[in-house]
Amino acid sequence: MAKKEYLRKPEWLKIKLNTNQTYNGLKKMMREERLHTVCEEAKCPNIHECWAVRKTATFMILGSICTRGCRFCAVTTGRPTELDWGEPERVARSVEAMGLRHCVVTAVARDDLQDGGAEVFAETVRAIHRRMPNTTVEVLPSDMKGDYESLHMLMDAKPDIFNHNIETVERLTSRVRSKATYRRSLELLKRVKEISPNTPTKSSLMVGLGETKEEILQAMDDLLAHDVDIMTIGQYLQPTKKHLDVVRYVHPDEFAELKEIALQKGFKHCEAGPLVRSSYHADEQVNQAARQRQMAAEEEQGPEQLIENYKTQFAQ
Question: 0.85 exceeded by the pTM?
Answer without folding.
Answer: no
